[in-house]
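Case 218 in the screening queue. Each case pairs one protein sequence with one candidate compound; here the compound is magnesium ion. For every case the pipeline is the same: read the inputs, emit a complex structure as tokens, and attach any notable structural observations.

Predict complex for case 218.
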Amino acid sequence: MVEIRNVHKSFKKGWYALKDVSLSIDKGDFLFVTGSTGSGKSTLIRLIYMDIFPDKGEVAVAGFLSSSIKKTEIPLLRRRIGIIFQDFKLLRDKTIYENVAFALEVTGSSGRKMKEKAMKALAVVGLSHKRNDFPYQISGGEQQKTAIARALVREPFILLADEPTGNIDPEGSMEIIKILQDINTSGTAVLMATHDVYLAKKMGGKIINLSEGQIVED
Ligand SMILES: Nc1ncnc2c1ncn2[C@@H]1O[C@H](COP(=O)(O)OP(=O)(O)OP(=O)(O)O)[C@@H](O)[C@H]1O
Ligand SMILES: [Mg+2]
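Case 218 output:
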């Protein structure tokens, strides 16, 4: 589903943020990407949703190739990928329910089916009861759960999570990871970047450790 082959990515001449990185993610995988700040975790995630492109090597995601994807195809690829960030990126003037439903609206969805899907995604993250609250009325952990529901509602084949627990206390972080594991168990691949090696090891699953843009442990 995701194949990264001998990828090099440079932002500055003569200096690589990622060096010769290869990995594959298959259906049902739960993969942690660990590494200290600046090691290349976010760069790797951005390559997968084709926000940036490799200088050498190839990224293949759901049949799209980094070397040949057209600009007009990128939104189609993104619809099939769920992405969550450290800072949630919720719409402040929309309720929790509206934030989730909006992800479907922008793809042309509406009506009863849309409502059902949005309510189902909120139930998966345990936030049905907060659906009419606004983001400022709920905790950081709940905001991240909303972001997960928003990503989930389009039924992505993979969920990319870049430091999703970075702004959440340890207890809330465990809840977030448990939700990601449940989502993974029901068939969605999950890639989670974290600087917290201890947390990744505790959770089990596959770990790829980056250091200065290279995989040092797999
Ligand atoms: N747009 C950019 N322009 C220049 N340099 C960049 C850019 N994006 C990333 N870099 C550099 O590439 C390296 C890898 O960055 P990246 O954001 O992937 O690290 P990270 O592992 O996600 O770090 P963090 O844990 O702090 O989020 C860093 O040295 C960073 O400064
Ligand atoms: Mg990062």
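Case 218 observations:
- Residues 41-42, 162-163 surround magnesium ion (ligand 2) (CB under 6 Å).
- The chain has two domains: 1-80+158-218, 85-155.
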